[in-house]
């Protein structure tokens, strides 16, 4: 008896032709139609898959499906939607692409991430224009670029978390070949490329999946819409659809990793959770190709099982975001205590999070009115990704203010030292390294008026918790345009800030990244102290009063050195002064 295998979806290049395959288990007839008028019936096979083989190279042809006489509908596994979410799908032979010889990737313990949104990273907002900015990132020491979702969504601009064609790069960003080049150029610059993917829900506008089959769960829903059917009847082709999608980006586009959006919204009661199965297949691919593949999960559960080894009943995911660290830094430096920030604000929480991984590891949350999280239990600290700014924490504010607008430059540099010199895996948000002041707002280009109104009302209701009432219209083009990076590198503070971030990154590479040093942190006398067993010490002053570091070792960084825009000359007698909200690093 041979093992039954769920086939993959989408066009497959075989035997000098193309096999078109689509899953539509409850349909009585399925036809494939091309924009040149050609039409052919498809043959139904096992598990509800329909197939049709064309014995010629169909690259560049545009096609769709007719289901029981209704349609045409784009391919759910479309590789490109040149005309947008309602247009025909284009046949793209991504399997012919080859990765760079000798490129093995970057281990996550050496990751220094920068999060990038393609549409606002450059004035043009395209894959190709982003290539031109990669040398800037590699020059300051970034080792991995995390791109926010690029799967085809409605309209021309969006954050990307409402994608509806998970295999198709967004047409307003460029063609698939352009995205492949962007990944290749990241590698040429010595940086890993990580893609943000969304497997917890499908966008509501242009979502044709229900026309084909039970892709979506009838039992569960998320705040963003219905979740995928990972554990109900007919779930196996849906699971294969998602697993193949992950492998598609990693293998055919050559991405080095994926960031999984909001995995707490993925509900799966199967014997093997979809996260575990995804990681197993990613590990197998990495083993076959002898390269590093990293999977990073976003979760608000503070659950170490996400990254715990499979032998210990974990999912084995490489790493996960740690919001506790961001919230502890942000709430103290800004003084904000509204919304979920009510659980934070004590500066000692920063040291506690540095030591314990999670702050809420079984503690009671007054914001949630329940106990939250589980202990980190000595797992490697590089398995936690931390930041002082990201798209959520900036863009989910009413006015999209970056930390550079909310606090003064001294606090801004203190936050940077805490993130980049922590034992965790650090992540910057695009433009942070030079103190970008342009907002990053929530924006959409809605094709559906009812949906646009629903988004506006939803945002207003969410902001009431924070006391924000007048909010920019997310469906206004100016909201999108104002969120583009200004790249003002000649500003008074931009060059010093860039030098400072570059120096912090260089220190991290010298003393922390990829190393296996033991670590502890302490909160004493208004200082957060970070101590590594190799003698590397960092003191961050979190007080309005001055202090000093012990008279031991060599000072290798002071956030107040003049070339960083500060008040102290390098090598001066004031080199050990801890001015209010300053940071000093010492090598013993």
Automatic annotation (TrEMBL):
Pfam family, one: Alpha-amylase
One GO MF term attached to the UniProt entry: 4-alpha-D-(1->4)-alpha-D-glucanotrehalose trehalohydrolase activity
GO biological-process terms attached to the record: trehalose biosynthetic process
Residues in coiled coil: none
GO cellular component terms, A-Z: cytoplasm
Catalytic residues (UniProt): 261, 298
Enzyme Commission code: 3.2.1.141
The UniProt record lists the keyword Hydrolase: yes
Record SMART domains: Aamy (SM00642)
Enzymatic reactions: hydrolysis of (1->4)-alpha-D-glucosidic linkage in 4-alpha-D-[(1->4)-alpha-D-glucanosyl]n trehalose to yield trehalose and (1->4)-alpha-D-glucan
Subcellular localization, as worded in the UniProt entry: Cytoplasm
Pathway: Glycan biosynthesis; trehalose biosynthesis
Residue span(s) of domain Glycosyl hydrolase family 13 catalytic: 115-459
Keyword Cell wall biogenesis/degradation: no
Keywords: Carbohydrate metabolism, Cytoplasm, Glycosidase, Hydrolase
Annotated positions binding substrate: 259-264, 323-327, 391-396
Record-annotated site: Transition state stabilizer: 392
InterPro entries: GH (IPR017853), GH13_cat_dom (IPR006047), Glyco_hydro_13_N (IPR004193), Ig-like_fold (IPR013783), Ig_E-set (IPR014756), Trehalose_TreZ (IPR012768), Trehalose_TreZ_E-set_sf (IPR044901)
Family statement drawn from the similarity comment of this UniProt entry: Belongs to the glycosyl hydrolase 13 family.
PANTHER family (alphabetical): 1,4-ALPHA-GLUCAN-BRANCHING ENZYME, MALTO-OLIGOSYLTREHALOSE TREHALOHYDROLASE
NCBIfam families in UniProt: trehalose_TreZ
Protein's name in the database: Malto-oligosyltrehalose trehalohydrolase
Organism: Candidatus Sysuiplasma superficiale
Gene that this sequence comes from: treZ
């Amino acid at each position: 008896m041979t093992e039954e295998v769920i086939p993959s979806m989408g066009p497959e290049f075989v035997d000098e032709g193309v096999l078109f395959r689509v899953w539509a288990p409850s349909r009585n007839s399925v036809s494939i139609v091309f924009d040149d008028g050609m039409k052919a019936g498809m043959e139904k096979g096992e598990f509800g898959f329909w197939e049709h083989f064309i014995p010629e190279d169909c690259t560049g042809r545009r096609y769709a499906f007719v289901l029981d006489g209704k349609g045409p509908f784009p391919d759910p596994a479309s590789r490109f939607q040149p005309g947008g979410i309602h247009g025909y799908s284009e046949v793209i032979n991504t399997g012919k692409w080859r990765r760079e010889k000798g490129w093995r990737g970057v281990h996550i313990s050496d990751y220094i991430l920068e999060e990038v949104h393609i549409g606002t990273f450059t004035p043009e907002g395209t894959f190709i224009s982003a290539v031109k900015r990669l040398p800037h990132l590699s020059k300051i020491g970034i080792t991995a670029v995390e791109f926010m979702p690029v799967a085809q969504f409605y309209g021309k601009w969006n954050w990307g978390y409402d994608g509806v064609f998970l295999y198709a790069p967004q047409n307003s960003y460029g063609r698939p070949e352009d995205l492949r080049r962007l990944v290749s150029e990241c590698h040429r610059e010595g940086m890993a490329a990580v893609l943000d993917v969304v497997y917890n829900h499908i966008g509501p506008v242009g979502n044709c999946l229900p026309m084909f089959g039970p892709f979506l769960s009838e039992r569960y829903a998320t705040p963003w819409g219905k979740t995928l059917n990972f554990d109900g009847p007919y779930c196996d082709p849906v699971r294969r659809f998602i697993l193949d999608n992950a492998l598609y980006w990693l293998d055919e586009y050559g991405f080095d990793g994926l960031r999984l959006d909001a995995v707490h919204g993925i509900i799966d009661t199967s014997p093997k959770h979809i996260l575990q199965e995804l990681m197993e297949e990613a590990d197998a691919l990495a083993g076959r190709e002898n390269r590093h593949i990293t999977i990073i999960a976003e979760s608000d559960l503070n659950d170490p099982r996400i990254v715990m080894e499979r032998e210990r009943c974990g999912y084995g995911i490489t790493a996960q975001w740690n919001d506790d660290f961001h919230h502890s830094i942000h709430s103290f430096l800004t003084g904000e205590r509204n919304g979920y920030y009510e659980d934070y604000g004590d500066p000692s929480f920063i040291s506690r999070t540095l030591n314990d991984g999670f702050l809420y590891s079984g503690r009671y949350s007054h914001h949630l009115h329940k106990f939250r999280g589980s202990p980190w239990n000595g797992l490697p600290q590089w398995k936690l990704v931390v930041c002082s700014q990201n798209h959520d924490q900036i863009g989910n504010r009413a006015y999209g203010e970056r930390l550079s607008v909310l606090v003064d430059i001294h606090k801004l540099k203190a936050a940077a030292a805490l993130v980049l010199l922590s034992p965790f895996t650090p992540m910057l948000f695009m433009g942070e390294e030079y103190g970008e002041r342009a907002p990053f707002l929530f924006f959409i280009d809605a094709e559906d008026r009812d949906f646009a109104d629903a988004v506006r009302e939803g945002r207003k209701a969410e902001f009431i918790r924070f006391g924000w009432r007048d909010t920019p219209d997310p469906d206004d083009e100016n909201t999108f345009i104002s969120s583009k990076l200004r790249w003002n590198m000649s500003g008074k503070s931009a060059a010093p800030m860039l030098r400072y971030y570059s120096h912090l990154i260089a220190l991290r590479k010298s003393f922390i990244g990829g190393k296996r040093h033991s670590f502890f942190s302490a909160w004493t006398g208004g200082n957060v102290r970070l101590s590594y067993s190799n003698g590397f010490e960092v003191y961050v002053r979190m007080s309005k009063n001055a202090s000093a570091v012990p008279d031991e070792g060599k000072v290798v960084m002071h956030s107040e050195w003049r070339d960083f825009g500060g008040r102290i000359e390098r090598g001066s007698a004031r080199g050990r002064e801890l001015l209010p909200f300053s940071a000093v690093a010492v090598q013993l």
